[in-house]
Amino acid sequence: MKLFLAFVKKEFQHLLRDRRSMMILIGLPVMMMLLFGFALSSEVKNSSIGILDNAKDESSRMLIDRLDHSQYFSVVKFLDREQEIDQTFRRGEVRIVVIFPPNFDHDLRHSNSAQIRFVGDASDPNTSNIVINYASAVVRDFQNELFGTMKMPYQITTETRMLYNPQLKSSYNFVPGVMTLILMLLGAMMTSVSIVKEKEMGTMEILLVSPMKPLLVVLSKAVPYLALCFVDVILILLMAVFILDMPIAGSLPLLLAESLLFILTTLALGLLISANVESQQVAMFISLVGFLMPALVFSGFMFPIENMPKPMQIISNIVPTKWYYSIVRAIMVKGLGFSYVAKQTGILVVMTVIFFVAAIKKFKVRLE
Amino acid sequence: MAEPVEATSEVEDMSRVSIQNITKTYEKGTVTALDDVSLEVESGELFGLIGPDGAGKTTLFRILTTLLKPDEGKAEVNGFDVVDDFWEIRKIVGYMPGKFSLYQDLSIIENLNFFATVFETTVEENYHLIKDIYVQIEPFKDRLAGALSGGMKQKLALCCALIHEPKVLFLDEPTTGVDPVSRKEFWDMLDLLKARGITIIVSTPYMDEASRCDRIALMQDGKIMEIDRLENILEKHRQPTYSVKGTDRHRLIQDIRSFDQTDSCFAFGEDNHVVFKDSPATDSLLHFLGEKGHMNLTVHEVMPDIEDVFIKLMLEQENHG
Amino acid sequence: MAETVIHTENLTRKFGNFTAVDAISFEVSKGEIFGFLGANGAGKTTAMRILCGLLAPTSGVAKVAGYDVYTETENIKKHIGYMSQKFSLYNNLTVRENIHFFGGIYGIPKRELKEKSEELISRLGLTQEADKLVGSLPLGWKQKISFSTAILHEPKIVFLDEPTGGVDPITRRQFWDMIYEAAHRGITVFVTTHYMDEAEYCDRVSIMVDGAIAALDTPEELRNQFEAKDMDEVFLRLARGAKRGE
């Protein structure tokens, strides 16, 4: 045990003295959170919209006012004719144009069939879709307020409710994604690189010619990274809650426990890489291309897995990030309990055990 | 100094190293690193493996330190088999690889403490073993190993290899790339360790260091060409050798080689060592060189040194192969 | 008097407070074999880097092949060859590819390069090995090829940094035969070594101690001056007096 502690101490010394590694360990999560949170946000805030109000009555004005005052939109342009729409889009002045029919107020109050048209700029389909969704939501709210107390036997409302994330905040999507990627990257890459470094530097040669069991070397390597990855999880969660206003819906202890499990998975992967390669570059290459790329593609974070061809969907099952991503979303966003993530947890446990056993089996007590 | 070879071998044959018919190949048998090597090192001996890069010295060390398994043959350290009892061997040997292999980002004292812990001891417990060497680097003990000069790194590496009081010490080319002054200092340190009864096997490409060893093995191309005490080897392979000096050195060597009685001619420091094919033919060589226009020629017989012998053995090996 | 190809005057290089090279002055003539000795850390490597145009001096004068080390480093690099023990050839290229590559770097025209490299391969007796990877050859061969490649473009000066470390005694001497030949053709050879017998093979030898040149003369003169039996003894006398650790 004393030996193990000496090793762990040494590993911390390596880490704390290596400014580059520390920058990556602490800087990368912060940077990714800020990037996704602000720069690359797919979320809608203060989107410019145009209005073509053919009604100019009380209801239309109320609704326009409502749109303009929501935090999602600002009305930047009033159009007079439908012909102007095209031109406005071309100039990039607005994302969508909201068109009120003549007699809007009348239709709304008497025939229950008032129609509002949204015209979106589909050259950027994702954003237009989101903006139109938001606008529809505002319109529905308006409608509910107006008729909430009235009896409307024949009214049919199609309602698309965005569950768990009513405001379609993108942080709900990317925070679990960033956590998954960061842990995958740091856990697997940093661990494997640090072990392979000992091989490259020749220190492994001395360690092997000592009564110490190689397993101890390897496990002690994993400890500092386990700690630092855990710090990263906490860092990301803190940023999510306090900077991006994203509450943790489910149980925090459960989330942390699951994260710990996933860190172990990635460390085991890192150990497995390091047992098989001889140079730091190869270790890094395998971690980045062999693990990070699939992690990115198959976690469901960037591209929905349901939309993939069947073979790809099957492949995605062996990618650990997919399971962790789904666990984090379940706990953090949906607020679900352990019974809902038991299956994913079980899969991760099995994967971790397999990786660890394989890594230990592969680890040599000699140079060849 | 007393002769520890006989002294200890009578009492007990513990910290000896025995190698029998070891063969080791790489790249699926295409590259032969060691070819049927046999060797005995006695307890308390300072033994030198002498040969150029690629002779197989490092491979032999790696087999003895249990880092590699031999393809064929058997080797024992302290009575333990290098394949079957490798955990036992790892407890009792100290090893200093050819490349500086300590943690560059840890300080001298941190490296030392770490390796002491690895071998389940402490620096305090075995301080007496490293004291003579350690005092030389102690003033810099908080400096990172990466920032040390070559000579200091070497001393630190030796301290780290010694900290657990090994019975057998393996030093792989500790003096390569080191200037003559530091090399001499290093060998002085080895003498101190030898006096403590530690068996030391050291490899070097510098032939002149042979004189610092009790016994040496001359290695070339994975084979041991000769094993014995330096004097015995010199005596055994002694052949009449002459130093020929003149002015235009490069042309002189070439002309000596073109003389039909010359067996070999090589530059040796300020001398050129000439070995004749049959009987010494110094007079006819001088005559021959005179005709070629060489002036200020001097000839005298010299005692061949270890490099003469090494060259002789290499040439013999080439002729046989 | 032969043409001077290296000229330095009070050449100094400091790293912060540390004076690595301390006002060294010397001249090397065309076709001379100049031994550049010193203990580890005496300042040899720094001095050599300055002369190769890789490092600017702090003060003093230095001209290599007639070019100034402050302003004309590009010209210097064109007129020198360089070989070190640590880096010489690419192990994963064949002998021929290495020769072509390094010849190409020094701007030898393609047709000439082809001729020269074939000539070199046959002169070194490597016809069989020409298409083998350099990594599979013994160190001695690598060093010979590396040296031949470094002088393929007929530089005025070739810098050799411990070219024979770890090489067997026969190959080491063959290597020196090649050095003699190059010098005979008029290439100046600037060489560092830890083998003191090799110091004897040089026309003149300088020994650096603590950043300064402590002695500079022919091996014979140095031996006489220090009443030493060989260069090893000369070196030990001078280097033992060194104050700074390596």
Q: Could you characterize the architecture of this molecule?
A:
The complex is a heterotrimer of chains A (368), B (321) and C (246). In chain A, 66% of the residues lie in helices and 6% in strands. Chain A has 368 residues and is an alpha/beta fold. Chain A starts with a helix and ends in a 6-residue tail after the last helix. Chain B is of the alpha/beta class and 321 residues long. Chain B folds into 2 domains: 2-229, P-loop containing nucleotide triphosphate hydrolases (Rossmann fold, 3-Layer(aba) Sandwich); 239-303, VP9 protein domain (Alpha-Beta Plaits, 2-Layer Sandwich). In chain B, the strands form 3 sheets. A 6-stranded mixed β-sheet of chain B has the order 6-7-8-3-9-10, with helices on both faces. In chain B, strands 2-1-4-5 form a 4-stranded antiparallel β-sheet, covered by helices on one side. Chain B is globular and about 70 Å long. Residues 1-11 of chain B have low confidence and may be disordered. In chain C, helix 3 crosses helix 4 (110-123). The longest helix of chain C has 16 residues, at 169-184. Chain C is globular. The B-C interface holds B 31, 51-55, 149-152, 173, 176-184, 205-208, 220, 249-250, 253, 266-270, 307, 310-311, 314-315 and C 38-42, 85, 136, 138-140, 162, 165-171, 173, 176-177, 180-181, 183-184, 194-197, 200-201, 219-220, 223, 230-232, 235-236, 239-240, 242, 245-246.
**How many strand elements of chain B?**
14
Q: Roughly what percent helix of chain A?
A: 55-70%
Compute the CA-based radius of gyration of chain B: 23 Å
CATH class of the largest domain in chain B: Alpha Beta
Architecture blueprint of SSEs:
The complex is a heterotrimer of chains A (368), B (321) and C (246).
Chain A: H1 2-17, H2 19-39, E1 47-53, H3 58-69, E2 73-79, H4 83-90, E3 96-100, H5 104-111, E4 117-120, H6 125-147, H7 171-201, H8 203-208, H9 214-242, H10 252-276, H11 280-298, H12 310-316, H13 320-333, H14 338-362
Parallel strand pairs in A: 1-2, 1-3
Antiparallel strand pairs in A: 3-4
Chain B: H1 4-11, E1 17-26, E2 31-41, E3 46-50, H2 57-64, E4 72-77, E5 80-81, H3 86-92, E6 93-96, H4 108-118, H5 127-137, H6 150-162, E7 168-171, H7 180-195, E8 199-204, E9 215-220, E10 223-228, H8 230-236, E11 241-245, H9 249-258, E12 262-268, E13 271-276, H10 282-291, E14 298-302, H11 306-320
Parallel strand pairs in B: 3-8, 3-9, 6-7, 7-8
Antiparallel strand pairs in B: 1-2, 1-4, 4-5, 9-10, 11-13, 11-14, 12-13
Chain C: E1 4-15, E2 18-29, E3 33-38, H1 44-51, E4 59-64, E5 67-68, H2 73-79, E6 80-84, H3 95-105, H4 110-123, H5 139-150, E7 157-161, H6 169-184, E8 188-192, H7 196-199, E9 204-209, E10 212-217, H8 219-225, H9 231-240
Parallel strand pairs in C: 3-8, 3-9, 6-7, 7-8
Antiparallel strand pairs in C: 1-2, 1-4, 4-5, 9-10
